[in-house]
Structures are given as structure tokens and as C-alpha cells.
Design brief:
CATH topology: Na+/H+ antiporter like fold
Function: Involved in cellular auxin homeostasis by regulating auxin metabolism. Regulates intracellular auxin accumulation at the endoplasmic reticulum and thus auxin availability for nuclear auxin signaling.
InterPro entries: Mem_transp_PIN-like, PILS1/3/4/5/7
Number of domains: 1
Order of helices and strands: HHHHHHHHHHHHHHHHHH
Radius of gyration: 27 Å
Subcellular location: Endoplasmic reticulum membrane
Number of strands: 0
Number of helices: 18
Pfam families: Mem_trans
Structural class: mainly alpha
Distance between the termini: 9 Å
Strand content: under 5%
Helix content: over 70%
CATH architecture: Up-down Bundle
Membrane topology: Multi-pass membrane protein
């Protein structure tokens, strides 16, 4: 196939994303104020809890089998490599540019996590529907492609809310603790000065010494540990109490509730129904007794793609209204995600093909390559909002990254299609 035809095929999905995103930004303008902040919040909640999980579950239910799951075993590893290499390149970029500590979590998160859900969810079906598509029959291409994308979305979602979430949490906690130390130092100094001033004016009452404070703290600690226990009840050993405290802290640090996200749950349910034959016969097929459940989930899932793209455009509009972030940080993130990672991705995927790790399926290989060339995940903006770290800067990064991705994704998609054919 001629390179020009490949380029036209690749540019169409990106143009569709841009057009629908433009409609979302248009609806969010102050003049119309349809997708206002509260409307976006409620719409995003519906997409998050209903549309996207239903889409992932319905697609995996119909397409994933035990055999197909074995053939795509390399995908989880490939996605993990995008996160690892993205984080390494982001860390190297921070060291070279000496980025401020407040930006470390945002830079590492944007470099590590690509938009593994929404963008491929739009690009792959659009590529399959093109008349010049190199991936064969439209129906087969769409069925296989959506299965790959859904699996990619589920796996990527797990990595984002374990790997990237904890990176941003750690760096935001460091900044918070530093600010807290500074505030406490200032308050303690001012309190000490006030005590000295009061003592100089009046000699009533003894001054509290350091030894008294230590004695008081020791007494409080002993009182907390050595509680009175009624006779006949065995006292819990201190080691058990310490282990309990450690487990409690570990659960809080890992934030296990976040791992059980709706998309993750939808992915697990979809794979279970698809892999287990009795469940598949019960939900999938014209003669399935519970086919109405799968049909309903499919109808809900169809609303996910347009809703997500409209929200993407409305949220990116905030980037136009913000300023103050160093351009070098934005450029660095764009270079990592749009140039460095795709080059590494080509080397990794071609190496896996050379050693026979990946089976010969052009569409599967294209999806693996595409995972390295995607702009930062939209979930990063949600994570920064959770910790209140870099929300404004995140809007600027997202706007610049997605504008540049409209060009880079087209070029890389053209090259990837030429590479796998």
C-alpha cells in the first residue's frame, strides 16, 4: 500500500477526535455554558461509573476466550514497559532540567502513563472502517481491535491507579510535609517568643522544661499501651498490636479501594464471562437466556466514546485559561511521549517479533506499537485533583500534549502501519 494512502487512513481517526473534542470545547465556552464545571463533573461521573465499565465488560465478554487470552500475554508486559521507560525518561528529564520539586510528580506521571483507553478506543474502530484499511475485513478488524483495546484499557487502568497514583502521592506528600514543617517551625518560634515575653513580664507559674515534656509524653505512651484489662481476658501482646498498626498503615498507603475501580471491575467481569464457557453461553449469543443483560451493557457502552471525547475537549479548554508554567517542562513531556517512547517501542516490539514472542497479527502488533505513542492519560488530572498538586499545570500539559498528538499520532500511526505490513 502506498505511503500516502496509509497517511490518509491514519489521519482520519485523529481528525474525528479533534472534531468531537472541538464540539466539547465549544459547549464549554462561557457564552454557551452547556458543559459547565458542574455538568462536566456529573457527566464524568456517569462515564466513569456506568458507560466505560459497561463498554469494557461487553466487549471482553464477546471477544475474549481462553485461547485468545493466551495469545495476547505479551500485552500486560508491553504496557508495563511503557510505564517503566516513561518514568525513567521523565526522571532523566527532571535531573537534566532541574525541575522544581512541586512538578516532579506531575512530570513523572505524564511521562509514564499514556491514554491507553480513550484514544485507542476511538482510533482503532475508525481505522477498521476506512476503505483503505490494511487490517482486512471491517467486522473482523473491529471485533479483534476492540478486544485488544479493551484489554489494554483494563490493564492500563490498573497500572495507572497503582504505579502512577503512588508516584504522585509520594511527591505531593513530600511537598505537603515540607510546607507543614516550615509552618510548624514558624509557629513554634513565635510561640516561644511569646512565652519568653510573658515570663519576662510576670514570674507567676513555673516554666515547662524539656524533661517535663519528655516525662509527659512517656506517661501518655505507657497509658495508651498498658490499658486495664478485666480478669480472665488474655492481654494482646505488643508485637500483635504493632503488626496490626503496620497492616493498617500499609492498607492506607496502598489505597486498595482505588484499585477496585469500575473499569477494573468491568474488565474482570468481562474476562470471567468470556473465558468460562457456561457463563458465556448464559450471556452471549442469540439463544442465551440472559442475552438482554449483555445487550443492555453494550447499549450503555456505546455512549462512552462520544461522551469521553466531548469531556476531553471541554477539559482541555482550561489549559487555554492558565499560564505560568515553564515551557521547558511542557516541551520535555511532549518530547518524551511523542518522540523518545515511540522509538523505544519500535525497538521493543520489533525485538519481540524477531525472537518469536509475538504472534504474527498486524493489528495486534499495531496496537502494541500505538501504546508507546499516546498522549498522557486523562486520569492524571483526576489524580492531581485528589492530592491538590499541580492541577493548573496539568491542564496546560494536557492541552499542549493533545494538540501535538494530533500531528505525532498521525505520523506514527502511518509509520506503524507500514512497519507491520
Amino acid at each position: 500500500m502506498q505511503l500516502w494512502k496509509l497517511f490518509i487512513t491514519a489521519v482520519m481517526p485523529v481528525l474525528k477526535v479533534l472534531l468531537i473534542s472541538a464540539v466539547g470545547a465549544f459547549l464549554a465556552l462561557h457564552r454557551f455554558n452547556i458543559l459547565r464545571k458542574t455538568a462536566r463533573k456529573h457527566m464524568n461521573t456517569v462515564v466513569y461509573y456506568v458507560f466505560t465499565p459497561a463498554l469494557v465488560c461487553s466487549i471482553l465478554t464477546k471477544t475474549i476466550t481462553h485461547k485468545s487470552l493466551v495469545t495476547v500475554w505479551f500485552m500486560p508486559l508491553n504496557i508495563l514497559l511503557t510505564f517503566i521507560f516513561g518514568t525513567a525518561l521523565g526522571w532523566l528529564f527532571i535531573k537534566i532540567t532541574k525541575a522544581p520539586p512541586t512538578m516532579h510528580g506531575l512530570v513523572l506521571g505524564c511521562c509514564a502513563a499514556g491514554n491507553l483507553g480513550n484514544m485507542p478506543l476511538i482510533i482503532i474502530p475508525a481505522l477498521c472502517k476506512e476503505s483503505n484499511s490494511p487490517f482486512g475485513d471491517v467486522g473482523i478488524c473491529n471485533k479483534k481491535g476492540m478486544a485488544y483495546v479493551s484489554l489494554s484499557m483494563g490493564i492500563g487502568n490498573i497500572y495507572i491507579w497503582t504505579f502512577v497514583y503512588n508516584i504522585i502521592r509520594i511527591y505531593s506528600c513530600r511537598i505537603f510535609n515540607e510546607n507543614k514543617v516550615d509552618d510548624s517551625t514558624v509557629s513554634s518560634v513565635s510561640a516561644r517568643e511569646a512565652d519568653l515575653e510573658n515570663n519576662s513580664k510576670s514570674s507567676i507559674g513555673p516554666m515547662t522544661t524539656t524533661e517535663d515534656i519528655l516525662e509527659t509524653n512517656d506517661h501518655v505512651t505507657k497509658t495508651e499501651i498498658e490499658c486495664t484489662i478485666p480478669s480472665g481476658i488474655t492481654k494482646v501482646p505488643k508485637q500483635a498490636q504493632i503488626m496490626k498498626q503496620y497492616l493498617k498503615v500499609l492498607v492506607e498507603k496502598l489505597n486498595l479501594k482505588v484499585l477496585l475501580e469500575p473499569v477494573t471491575i468491568g474488565s474482570i467481569l468481562g474476562m470471567i464471562i468470556g473465558i468460562v464457557p457456561p457463563f458465556k453461553k448464559m450471556f452471549v449469543g442469540d439463544n442465551a437466556p440472559l442475552r438482554v443483560v449483555e445487550d443492555s451493557a453494550s447499549m450503555l457502552g456505546d455512549a462512552s466514546i462520544p461522551a469521553v471525547t466531548l469531556l476531553l475537549g471541554a477539559n482541555l479548554l482550561n489549559g487555554l485559561k492558565q499560564s505560568g508554567m515553564k515551557p521547558s517542562l511542557v516541551v520535555g513531556i511532549i518530547v518524551v511521549r511523542n518522540i523518545a517512547l515511540p522509538i523505544l517501542g519500535v525497538a521493543i516490539v520489533k525485538g519481540a517479533i524477531h525472537f518469536g514472542i509475538i504472534h504474527h497479527d498486524p493489528l495486534y502488533q499495531f496496537v502494541l506499537l500505538l501504546q508507546y505513542a499516546l498522549p498522557p492519560a486523562v486520569s492524571i488530572s483526576t489524580i492531581t485533583q485528589l492530592f491538590g498538586a499541580g492541577e493548573t499545570e496539568c491542564s496546560i500539559v494536557m492541552l499542549a500534549a493533545y494538540v501535538c498528538a494530533s500531528i505525532s499520532l498521525t505520523l506514527w500511526s502511518t509509520f506503524f502501519m507500514w512497519l507491520v505490513l
